[in-house]
Write a structure and sequence with these properties.
This protein is α+β, with helices and mostly antiparallel strands and 102 residues long. The chain has one domain: Zincin-like, CATH 3.30.2010. It contains five helices and three strands; from the N terminus they run ααβββααα. The protein has a three-stranded mixed beta sheet with strand order 1-3-2.
Length: 102
Amino acid sequence: MVADAIDSLPDEFLDLLDNVVVLVEDAHTENLLGLYEGVPHTERGDYGGLELPDRITLYRLALCDFVEDRSALVDEILVTIVHEVAHHFGIDDDRLHELGWD
């Protein structure tokens, strides 16, 4: 489902993803659905040497608990991927809310 969500992103976004790994883990201590860890494009400066990849992690158990059925899970995975990819591009939660990606 995660691979399908990533594949459904517009090519313009996929082409700009740089040095990013997407992982799935069971849970986060703060019960998050997803988490972006890295250096957003807007803050990279001289980025590009020997940096480890940025990480987008989806938390399987939290996502499953958040929805009622498989169809809703597919939708929520996409929303979570979009949310975390947006952070990779330097878009914060307030702007995502303005754009309707809550």
